[in-house]
Design brief:
By secondary structure, the protein is an alpha/beta fold. It contains 10 helices and 14 strands.
Length: 329
């Protein structure tokens, strides 16, 4: 059993609480909104702390989940590690790479587990695609093409994600880091070749669209990524191209459509490939699986969960794109 404290009682904090194993216990919740903290704490029989500082000082807490805005994540995470807690922080882990680098060093010094919430790794279509890729189903990987976007909502440009002092950047930093993380998880190391961000529609100082071309160190693998909050209809499409076929993950459930994995196998005579489809209409279990992977990491088992280094490298790519676009946040 692990005893847990959650800092940030919004949508993601609530998902994290729901994903705890039956044997784990939520001890305390802290949030800038006392009302939100009370709502989440009451649901799970936990206590409400007056501040995040008092929460991490509780000796009985083993793991601290940090589901705050980007600017507060490194501050809370640093103090939690110093207090000897394991931590799970939400992506992207901070506003920029320089905020995340000290956490890398501190986690090594304290020898506490520090992981980053990239739950997309744990979607069933993604897990199956990863397994098939490793088994050689599509042969040698050539390139990845991916799109991820949503249509925004009224007042989107007034939310905290549109304020660079709080968020650190726009859509590329928000949803784009998922695509970068998945590329690195599926295809190994990548760095930025070409990156451009632009604000087409929303009246805000951060980008609403980001376009990337990534390259492997040997320049034998590439990735073409587009993150957008002017998609109008929520969309997720992640394609992995190999010399013997293609794996396509389409949808994430709910407003993104039923999650599917499509396997296109190239025939010896080529022509129209053989298509095998796998559908995953069940409720999203990625949060539960990611939590179990965190526990495995704490207990010294290998687990497919993002590390602070993974998040740091994703942020480096994002900020290289900002630099190429002439932006300074």
């Amino acid at each position: 059993m692990y005893r847990v404290g959650i800092i940030g009682a919004g949508l993601i904090g609530a998902k994290r609480a729901k994903a705890l194993r039956p044997c784990d216990k939520l001890i305390a919740v802290a949030d800038l909104s006392h009302e939100r903290a009370v709502t989440l704490a009451t649901t799970y029989g936990a206590q409400v702390e007056s501040s995040w500082e008092t929460l991490i000082q509780r000796k009985e807490i083993d793991i601290v989940v940090i589901a705050t805005s980007n600017n507060a994540i490194p501050i809370c995470a640093t103090e939690a590690l110093k207090k000897g807690k394991h931590i799970l922080i939400e992506k992207p882990g901070g506003r920029n790479p320089s905020e995340l680098k000290p956490l890398l060093e501190l986690s090594k010094k304290t020898q506490k587990t520090a992981r980053v919430g990239f739950n997309h790794r744990f979607h069933p279509a993604m897990l199956k695609a990863k397994s098939m890729l490793e088994e050689g189903a599509i042969g040698e990987l050539m390139y990845i093409r991916a799109r991820y976007g949503h249509g925004g909502r009224i007042g989107y440009n007034q939310e905290w994600r549109a304020n660079p002092e709080i968020s650190g950047g726009g859509e590329l930093l928000d949803q784009g880091v998922h695509l970068i993380d998945l590329c690195r998880w599926m295809g190994g190391e990548f760095s930025l070749d070409v990156g451009r961000v632009h604000t087409f529609y929303w009246n805000m100082p951060v980008e609403d669209n980001g376009f990337l071309i990534l390259k492997s160190p040997d320049q034998k693998r590439f990735a073409h990524l587009h993150a957008s909050c002017t998609e109008w209809k929520n969309l997720f499409d992640f394609e992995i191209f190999g010399k013997k076929g293609k794996l396509q993950i389409w949808g994430l459930g709910r407003s993104y459509g039923t999650e599917e994995l499509r396997y296109y196998k190239v025939k010896p005579e080529m022509g129209v490939p053989e298509l095998t489809s796998f559908s995953f209409p069940e409720e999203d279990q990625s949060w539960n699986l990611e939590w179990s992977a965190l526990i495995d990491s704490i207990e010294g088992k290998q687990a497919p969960i993002s590390t602070l280094e993974d998040a740091f490298k994703a942020l480096e790519i994002v900020y290289s794109a900002y630099e190429q676009s002439g932006l300074k946040f």
